[in-house]
Amino acid sequence: MSIGLVFCAVFAVTASRISHAGLEHFSPEERARILQHGPWPPHVAREASNRVSSSLPAARFGEQLFFDRRLSVNGSISCASCHVPEFDFTDRRPTAAGLADTDRNTLSLTNARLNRWFGWAGATDSLWAASLRPMTDAREMGSAERHVTEVVRTQPDLACAYRRTFGAAPSATDDDHVLSDVGKALAAFQSRLVSGRTPFDAFRDALARGDRRAQARYPDAAQRGLKLFVGRAQCNLCHLGPQFTNGEFDKVGISVRRPDGRIDWGRFDGIKAQQASRFSLTGRFNDDPARSRGVSSRHVALTGENYGQFRVPGLRNVARTAPYMHDGSVPTLTDVVRHYSTIDALKLHLAMPHAHGDPGGDLPPRPAESVLRALDLTERDIADLVAFLHTLNDARPRASMGGHKPASCVRRGALSELGVQSMPDRS
Ligand code: HEC
Ligand code: HEC
To answer: Ligand 1 centroid vs 83 CA: distance in angstroms?
Structure first.
């Protein structure tokens, strides 16, 4: 039994004797479930697949690349066109638009480093590989790989920053090597985008210490919403841990049909893309000699269950990143909770995959039953869950950035302005 659980058990006995105004009663099981959503910020393992993950010159180079439109085919789009710093690195659109419209909602990059799989379908298995994908997607930045590597080789400011970061000029012949390094610098920048402490974290830590006065500062509605979240509504079956996600893929009854009538097969296509990629952790650009994470990437098996699954999103700062879901089809958090309240479990079970036809090959077995059931929440329950979700917002002032002229080599950038904190590395 962990120290936390022992503590909870002792605390529960005390709590049952003292009643305290403004405090929900949480059972020992509920307390244990609440405690596992912290502490924050978390300790994370060193990102061994990227040798420059914690390097400051790499982060500055990555920041420079992030705002650089020259990486797109016609000089019109940068990463920041969709991942807008002022909007928590999203674009407030249902689905992203670069050179053309895409099918998916822009994911925030805050806390992206903590993911195991990247993108809604997990089409990449590292932050650096996920950073390469948009450059060559025709609807996003539309560049040929050779365009990206030539820009880095020939533009003096970028070539200089590359040398400072990697200790040598970009290879004149090995495009893949230069490309993977560009991804790794971009990842070093994004690794530093960590959300700050929230009212929920203050409550959770007060609960852990048994500080009832501090607990009572947490709004009543949020306490009731939290109790539903870890209790009757069972949200934490999937949204668990400090980042409020199990990091895996599931389906919650959002349509997989795109506006043009085609189907977004989600995780099914994601696994195929990840396994086919030269930039997967199983390939030669993984800098980790032990290849520990590469081994687990290789062992992901494609099954019928994967049709129409999407990644369980983390929920920190979620109130700031509307609209929601992989296709941005749900406008507000109240609508999200209403969706879970009225979900049709039978339809969810039958919807996949037969109703949409066979994407190729034999029909896979019908997926196992979902854990989701219509929750039949009252209006107050819905408001309470939404109030709780709002307490997952951090207090840090929103970033304001701009004026990113890529004029000089490795300037002091706006890393500090972003309110960026570094996530402690545990080697
Ligand atoms: C046209 C808009 C657009 C542009 C430009 C763009 N992105 Fe994205 N980004 C998205 C969308 C949409 C997703 C979700 C993609 C998916 O699930 O297939 C995403 C996902 C990501 C992810 C995965 C995050 C996670 O939590 O899994 C990373 C990392 C990322 N982008 C980094 C970048 C970088 C770096 C650039 C610039 C080189 C960039 N993006 C350019 C729209 C964009
Ligand atoms: C079976 C696992 C599961 C359960 C249980 C679950 N979720 Fe989700 N949640 C997901 C998945 C998967 C998605 C993304 C679905 C998609 O895009 O198609 C999601 C999306 C969300 C989003 C949108 C986030 C974003 O950035 O777009 C919110 C908010 C959310 N869930 C809150 C909740 C709440 C509140 C509950 C409890 C009432 C809950 N979830 C229960 C798996 C789950």
So the answer is: 7
